[in-house]
Write a structure and sequence with these properties.
With 325 residues, this protein is α/β, with parallel strands linked by helices. The protein has helices at residues 40-47, 69-73, 91-101, 106-120, 135-147, 165-178, 191-197, 215-226, 237-244, 277-286, 301-309, 314-317, and strands at 2-11, 14-24, 29-33, 55-60, 63-64, 76-79, 153-157, 183-187, 200-205, 208-213, 229-233, 250-256, 264-270, 291-296. Helix 4 crosses helix 5 (135-147).
Length: 325
């Protein structure tokens, strides 16, 4: 459905997108994650034909976005981070205008627009001026215009900006429903949103993809490399710390909130993701401290993001981040 090959975009001496290549299958919901300035929006703008690449190719359903722009763009519905709406138009008037631009036949237009309005929950504001709507409703109207014409691909840049928690949940359901009939690409800074709706995640840093896969697979892979172990021991923290002093392989000790009376929960790790399970077992057995629980600690998508992008916020979580180059 979508093929991106060796995509590069330079602004003077700054490289915003650096030899990016990936493919997206029909019906996939794919999330773009990355810190500010990573190249997500630039990539989306090139894919939609809004700006030109310095080099590289983008194919949308078999059409080249440069050589066959009309055919390629007809396959795409785009919601940029700022919705492309006209404030002095009423919602119905604006959507009809968009339908005209996209060449939607008048015989099928009314039914299509009513269905779209219902999907994005804007029926109740159909006759209102767009400039009088809240930012959240303007965002929904922007999504509605992207859906006009039933494009094969829908690209959304931060689709839940300005929405309240209830509206965010509604938008997630809309995106999931879109994935049944469309290929969906979205960027977001909200990790829960990406985890909830995306089949696959691409993490971009400094214009390059540093990881891609399902949220579950990314978490599992990096959990292995982190080597973090959660334990529950029937003892107080002082006893446990004293016992662990004898085992230099265990470098990281963090006391967690206790879940069970008379016990202590800890997060333990060694150097460079070393496997410390046997050392923990031997240590507790030697000091007669009952070991009630020992399990690997799964990383959240946010923690995966911080490790892979080297974001400065990683310092607050104890993660150093990987080398994206």
């Amino acid at each position: 459905m979508i093929e991106v090959k060796n995509l590069t975009k330079r602004y003077g001496h700054h490289t915003a997108v650096n030899d990016l290549s990936f493919s997206i299958n029909a019906g996939e919901i794919v999330g773009f994650l990355g810190p500010n300035g990573a190249g997500k929006t630039t990539t989306m703008n090139i894919m939609t034909g809004f700006i030109a690449a310095t080099k590289g190719d983008v194919m949308i359903n078999g059409f080249d976005i440069v050589a066959e722009p009309e055919q390629a763009k007809a396959q795409i519905g785009y919601l940029p981070d700022t919705p492309p709406v006209y404030g002095d138009m009423r919602v119905d008037e604006y959507l009809s205008f968009v339908a005209d631009i996209k060449g939607v036949k008048r015989t099928s237009r009314k039914e299509m627009l009513e269905k779209i309005k219902q999907q994005v929950h804007i029926n109740d504001v159909s006759r209102r001026l767009i400039k009088n709507l809240s930012r959240g409703y303007r965002q929904r109207v922007g999504l509605a215009q992207a859906m006009v014409g039933n494009p094969r691909v829908i690209i959304m840049d931060e689709p839940t900006i300005g929405l309240d928690p209830k509206q965010i949940i509604e938008m997630r359901e809309v995106v999931k429903a879109l994935g049944k009939k469309h290929t969906v690409i979205l960027s977001s800074h909200i990790m829960q949103e990406v985890s909830a709706v995306c089949d696959r995640v691409m993490i971009i840093n400094k214009g390059r993809i540093v990881a891609q896969g399902t949220p579950e697979n990314l978490s599992a892979e990096l959990t292995k490399s982190s080597g973090k172990i959660q334990v529950r021991i029937k003892a107080d923290p002082t006893q446990i710390r004293e016992a662990l002093k004898e085992y230099a392989v265990i470098r990281h000790i963090n006391v967690l909130d206790s879940r069970e009376a008379g016990t202590t929960d800890l997060e333990l790790a060694g150097d460079e993701g070393a496997d410390i399970r046997e050392a923990i077992f031997r240590c507790m057995a030697k000091h007669s401290l009952p070991l009630l629980l020992m399990k690997s600690m799964d990383l959240s998508l946010e923690e995966v993001f911080l490790r892979l992008t080297g974001d400065m916020r990683a310092e607050a979580t104890g993660y150093k981040g990987g080398d994206s180059e």
